[in-house]
Amino acid sequence: MHAYLSRGRRAPIRAAALLAGALACQMALAAPPKGSPEHIAAVTAQVDERGVRANAARTADWPAYGLDYAETRHSKLAEIDAGNVGKLGLAWTYNLESTRGVEATPLVVDGIMYVTASWSVVHAVDVRTGKRLWRYDPKVPREYAQKGCCDVVNRGVALYRGKVFVGTFDGRLVALDAATGKPVWEKDTVEDRSRPYTVTGAPRVIKGKVIIGNGGAEYGVRGYLTAYDAETGEQKWRWYTVPGDPSKPFENEAMVKAAKTWDPAGQWWVTGGGGTAWNSIAYDPELNLMYVGTGNGSPWNHRKRSPAGGDNLYLASIVALDPDTGKYVWHYQETPGDNWDYTSVQDMILTDLTLDGKKRKVILHAPKNGFFFVIDRTNGKFISAKPFTEVNWATGYDKNGRPIETPLARSREAFDSVPGPFGGHNWHAMSFNPKTGLAYFPVQNVPLNLAEDKDWRFNENKPGQPQSGTGWNTGMLVNTQAPKSKAFGRLVAWDPVRQKEAWRQEYASPWNGGTLTTAGNLVFAGTADGRFAAYSADKGEKLWEAPIGVGMVAPPVTYEVDGRQYVSIAVGWGGVFGLFQRATDKHGLGRVYTFALGADKPLPEVPAYPQGELISGVKYDPAHIPEGTKLYVSNCVFCHGVPGIDKGGNIPNLGYVPSRDIANLGDFVWGGPFVKKGMPDFTGKLSADDVEKIKAFIQGTADAIRPKP
């Protein structure tokens, strides 16, 4: 009887199993192939608020710039961990077909990767094969390159309900069909085309609105942030970071409040004011607040920008906005009266910390000015700030969150700015691991000496004013004296509760890549000298390294496809430091590298950097060198570096190009062949006499540093 009942019970179970199997087969047959347009349309349609928040529970995909709305860049995947990371190998590489800087964070949804290269070109890649699905080129005019300070870079795209959103270097916002790469709509985000605005940051999508800021503070623009309807492209709101023309009504009460902190004698509405919001945005769905980091003043020089002083709101600040309306809620200004290009656009991370026995909702931030901040994200109240690197402009912050400045900070004479305008930490991504309680980010010093430019006038181009020939407006002179501080780069793990460094790894150079941290007790980061490495998150021990050869500035990502964990990084040397400097002997070609456990593809050969011999034999008049020096500083130095002294980056150093090129320099500066690659055309800007003087400086400098026999 027992056996009979057992068999009787098993029969319907077997039947149900057979039926389930049949249904599964039918579904498999009906499901579109992975990587097909139908598959892509289906999986990207699920990327919205609910999808991003659901993914945060396990982080199988990487659907948003910082992984989640809090921008933690912490993956909960742990197939790859501190015990087996040594078995990581190359799965595939993908050619981004670029030779300029690559700063993008790839987005990945069910094996479909979206990544940008220089010139805002978007690539869709099948992670399962490493093959291209589609490519979209917004065809940014190459002559537009001279309107950007810091290379023709792009930090990535946003995804939302079947669309890919990209901001283009020339200031457009384009919505693409995620399955095909075809444009759906396009909007011009630049409200005043007489001003040199750019877009290099990744958009964010919050509550159905695509939000994007802009760059251009070095040139003289007014910063703002704009929200567009993700479906139609209709502009929903715009919030300015600094006040406008006081002869006209201010847009809102926040601008009225800001105007009281500026001196009208500086005519900030003429010089632009700055404050461009070109990178960091985070979002707290529970508080319904979005947070934006704002940029430096325009010009840098506070006395020129606002002669009577003042904090100059909302420069160098974290600002909380209502994402539905763009209305100002609160702000905290990290660098009042910015005088040093101390942007606050570096990545923000939202987390909860237990401080003095009480759980607090906080923002973690390590901006350019060298201090690590912990801010209450519910109300913007200052909690703490401590220096994460060498700092000489302030000794600390008082209990009210105001910096305690040193006498050196606003010197009218030449002084070493530490950190300098390159920042103690720049845009390179930070990550936070809740298990270790540590934040991970690259720290640096690029030595720079600043002096007040007493002769500065807006948009005047006087020889000796840094890059004024291409539109820069700093109000500062650079390196009139040799800097005394030393260059360095580090990877730092920071404890935000104790406000103390937990561990560090020394790097060979400044300008290293952003970080990723995982539940496998790992931190991944690329370096300026071409190494992609993994460290233990708790102790900082190096556990694995891949010799890529090309310097890396972008952050890595990790994700799971068909049950396997991958790690990818977009590689391509560049950015403002990478224009004229490098730490490898390899040519910085753009490529995506993807790794997995047990993969064993060989790393591709990377061509050597085409470095020539120090130039010689160009005829010049030594009497022209002083004027040539000033002309070079005003037109060439931020791209090409100092001839023969700097190494050259993704733009060559003119001390090492063929001598015939310098002898015939006019053929290059007046409508020359490199205009099609982004070099400014100096026709009408530099005379024949000017060019002769620049030649004298280039060859004269090479002769001065040439080793004597």
* CA-CA gap between termini: 107 Å
The major β-sheet equals: 5 strands, mixed
Number of strands: 40
Mean pLDDT comes to 95
Indicate the radius of gyration in whole angstroms. Answer: 26 Å
Number of helices: 12
Strand composition percent: 25-35%
Shape: globular
Features:
40 strands, disordered N terminus, 5-stranded mixed β-sheet, 15% helix, 4-stranded antiparallel β-sheet, alpha+beta, 709 residues
Explain what you see:
15% of the residues lie in helices and 29% in strands. The longest helix has 29 residues, at 2-30. Helix 8 (625-635) crosses helix 12 (688-705). The protein starts with a helix and ends with a helix. The strands form 11 sheets. The chain has a 5-stranded mixed β-sheet, with no helix packed on it. A 4-stranded antiparallel β-sheet has the order 2-40-39-38, with no helix packed on it. Strands 3-4-5-6 form a 4-stranded antiparallel β-sheet. The chain is an alpha+beta fold and 709 residues long.
